[in-house]
């Protein structure tokens, strides 16, 4: 909190882009409200084009807001951009690392950008190289690093000014599963150290792992907000039954499921059937019981899997679309 207030406060925040050619004015962010408290790990989850990066740029005071209000660290990004940027760590989708310099030199240059004394930069760079598990790479040119190492260096660089908030735009996009897990581990550590994180992602597992609270955004609007657990219990059932049918049987099977005893559950979500290109999903409080009902209906799925509901199911329930493209 800044004097008892949240670190970020957005009210009816809007970003419009001017018309281009024959297209009308475009609302990339369309009146959103949210707050981020100190020490929180706050996520913006949504598909490509939802307005997540645009929101991050407004928080980072690198893109002016078009309407509503935004306070960052108690300041106005339109008037106090440099003061805000001095207290933020920003990890954008493009890393802008200097490929020809070494890992350590990249940290030093960034420290000088914040006008930090050389001795402070040296100490912090050493600590951050350890944090990013890049100590052995300190003298290597950046162009020799793997994708995961580059991303860890970018995060280390963003921490050189000991920011009050670390902004991460799609921190693990493009990384392989192992590199993602290493990065999650590092971000989890920052979270435990009490660093306030604001991150965007279109990976529901990432949001579930890292975020205390999140807003689900679609077409520039918030469609839901809460902790991952709250969202799942509000918008999905405990279990999801995933069925794969032969393609020529799939539509008929989905229709039968929709009109079956399964669909008479105690709430709107229980028994809901979603037809995806490769699967039929049945939302059920008790997935095993639902599977028994499917078998009793003489339906013959090629495969059947009972799993716990995830944020992916929340997004599907809210928008009728899958987050995965
Ligand atoms: N400078 C711009 N001029 C016009 N439209 C823009 C501009 N920048 C972004 N947009 C549009 O605004 C919308 C939101 O983009 P934004 O990058 O914020 O989405 P996102 O949720 O971060 O998705 P991604 O993960 O693809 O970055 C998109 O439709 C995008 O094409």
From TrEMBL:
Keywords: Antibiotic resistance, ATP-binding, Nucleotide-binding, Transport. It is a peripheral membrane protein. GO terms for molecular function: ATP binding. Residues 8-244 form the ABC transporter domain. Pfam families: ABC_tran. It is found in: Cell membrane. Belongs to the ABC transporter superfamily. PANTHER family: ABC TRANSPORTER ATP-BINDING PROTEIN, ABC TRANSPORTER ATP-BINDING PROTEIN NATA. This is ABC transporter ATP-binding protein.
């Amino acid at each position: 909190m800044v004097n008892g207030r949240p670190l970020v406060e957005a009210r009816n925040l809007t970003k419009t882009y001017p018309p281009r050619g024959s297209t009308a004015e475009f609302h990339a962010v369309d009146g959103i409200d949210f707050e981020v408290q100190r020490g929180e790990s706050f996520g913006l989850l949504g598909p490509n084009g939802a307005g997540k990066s645009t929101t991050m740029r407004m928080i980072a005071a690198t893109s002016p807001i078009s309407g509503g209000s935004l306070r960052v660290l108690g300041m106005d990004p339109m008037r106090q951009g440099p003061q805000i940027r001095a207290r933020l760590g920003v990890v954008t989708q493009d890393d802008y690392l200097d490929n020809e310099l070494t890992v350590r030199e990249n940290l030093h240059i960034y420290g000088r950008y914040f006008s930090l004394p050389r001795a402070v930069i040296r100490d912090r760079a050493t600590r951050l190289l350890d944090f990013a598990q890049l100590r052995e790479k300190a003298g290597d040119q950046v162009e020799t690093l793997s994708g995961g190492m580059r991303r860890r260096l970018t995060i280390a660089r963003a921490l050189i000014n000991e920011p009050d908030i670390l902004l991460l735009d799609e921190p693990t996009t493009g990384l392989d599963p192992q590199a993602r897990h290493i990065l999650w581990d590092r971000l989890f550590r920052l979270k435990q150290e009490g660093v306030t994180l604001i991150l965007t992602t279109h990976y529901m597992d990432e949001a579930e792992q890292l975020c205390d609270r999140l807003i689900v955004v679609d077409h520039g609007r918030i469609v839901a907000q809460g902790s991952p657990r709250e969202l799942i219990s509000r918008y999905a059932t405990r279990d999801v039954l995933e069925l794969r049918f032969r393609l020529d049987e799939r539509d008929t099977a989905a229709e039968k499921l929709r009109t079956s005893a399964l669909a008479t559950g105690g709430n709107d979500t229980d028994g809901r059937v979603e037809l995806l290109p490769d699967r039929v999903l049945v939302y059920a409080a008790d997935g095993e019981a639902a599977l028994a009902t499917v078998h009793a209906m003489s339906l013959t799925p090629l495969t059947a899997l009972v799993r716990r509901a995830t944020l992916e199911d929340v997004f599907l329930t809210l928008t009728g679309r899958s987050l995965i493209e």
